[in-house]
Design goal:
This protein is of the alpha/beta class. It is built from 16 helices and 14 strands. The longest helix is centred in the N-terminal third of the chain and has 16 residues. The N and C termini lie far apart (about 55 Å).
Length: about 400
């Protein structure tokens, strides 16, 4: 299954494609050609592997969560610790690959968009490492929720440009980044942060993130001498999830669950659960499931997690959902916050709010499974960026 998509036009079945203004087509074709050359370039692949090992800190551990397992009862739970990557999230896996590719292409300037800030921090970090100019677009609401990451990007030398239009979140940040790219195509590479956008981005980001699943597969076979019964990951755009799932797609006995943001409930404007409340359409370069009204206008979204607060999902996820290879669920804000506390208190690991949605799904199903079953959950990032927001929601005093 995994070797067949995308096709030569960038489609995952009915999803994906290249829905962009004509001015962007040459840039996408240049990027696609450069990426296909890089995939076969032994020197490029070696440089990526060495940076992932010596700069990012890979392989990340696969940790047996004994106290969480004991607390929930039932299945044995393992945590894939992407929160231990340099910069604190899986986002840097893709950023290393794309910025290095941009440098090989002769680009001098990097732009990116970010929601929770982790992709922006990763892009600013790698741009600094490689001596590239960097500008990051970020919705004003997300800047307020993730002010720590805004400061980190500034420290790393990046310019953070606030986006004050629309919902002032990730969707609008992507639109602004695409407008910038259209104007500066010859000198600039747009580092898209998830498996979204026009071809070749969904394929390229998936490939760079699949290191997560490749490692997890080897690690669980070493620990348990069998493959996991379940893989679970949160899904905003879906890069951490497809990164974990992709190397297991042909292992039919391993079930996969992607977890979307149920927010305050599934009424319009209160969630970001595209499969539960959306339908296929086109947004920001790709055909996929998205949240829209009867006239096709994009609906506002909400999630306690800035990284999941987006109206569309990656087109490859839509493909596997229709093929019934991956199941998609949703978790609301309150349940995610309980999972945030649960993992913090049982394992001493404060997860990102994105990852807390996946942990909440684990808490639902683990007690119903036997102790012979194995769950691997992807901790896509650490919760440092979210603790101030959670403290405010809990009414915890932040000044003494």
């Amino acid at each position: 299954m995994k070797s067949k998509v995308p096709d030569d036009r960038g489609y995952f079945g009915d999803f994906g494609g290249k829905f962009v203004p004509e001015t962007l087509i040459p840039a996408l074709e240049e990027l696609e050609s450069a990426y296909f050359r890089a995939r076969k370039d032994v020197a490029f692949q070696k440089e990526v592997r060495e940076l992932l090992r010596h700069y990012v800190g890979r392989p990340t551990p696969l940790f047996f969560a004994s106290r969480l397992t004991e607390k929930l009862g039932g299945a044995r739970i393992y945590l894939k610790r992407e929160d231990l990557c340099h910069t604190g999230a899986h986002k840097i896996n893709n950023t290393i690959g794309q910025v290095l590719l941009a440098k090989k292409m002769g680009k001098k300037r990097i732009i990116a968009e970010t929601g929770a800030g982790q992709h922006g921090v990763a892009t600013a970090t790698v741009s600094s490492l490689m001596g590239m100019e960097c500008e990051v677009y970020m919705g004003l609401e997300d800047m307020e929720r993730q002010s720590l990451n805004v400061f980190r990007m500034n420290l790393l030398g990046a310019k953070v440009t606030p986006v004050k239009i629309g919902s002032k979140t990730l969707k609008d940040a992507i639109s602004e980044a695409m407008r910038d790219w259209t104007t500066h195509i010859r000198t600039t590479h747009y580092v898209l942060g998830s498996v979204l956008g026009a071809h070749p981005y969904p394929m390229m980001v998936r490939d760079f993130q699949s290191v997560i699943g490749v490692e997890a597969r080897k690690q669980i076979l070493k620990e348990e001498r069998k493959l996991p019964d379940y893989l679970i990951a949160s899904v905003g755009g879906g890069s951490n999830a497809i990164g974990l799932f992709y190397p297991f797609l042909n292992d039919r006995k391993t079930k996969m669950i992607g977890v979307e943001a149920g927010g305050r409930g599934l009424s319009a404007g209160n969630h970001a659960a595209r499969f539960a409340g959306g339908r296929p359409g086109v947004l920001q370069g790709t055909h996929t499931y998205l949240l829209q009204d009867r006239k096709g206008q994009i609906q506002l979204t909400h999630s306690v997690s800035a990284g999941l607060d987006y109206a569309a999902v990656g087109p490859e996820h839509s493909y596997y959902r229709e093929k019934k290879r991956i199941e998609y669920s949703w978790v609301g804000d309150a349940e995610a916050l309980r999972a945030f506390d649960l993992l913090s208190k049982t394992e001493g690991i404060i997860p990102a709010l994105e990852s807390a949605h996946a942990v909440a799904q684990v808490a639902r199903i683990a007690p119903e499974l036997s102790r012979r079953k194995i769950i691997v959950v992807n901790l896509s990032g650490r919760g440092d960026k979210d603790v101030m927001q959670v403290a405010r929601m809990k009414g915890f005093p932040l000044k003494w």
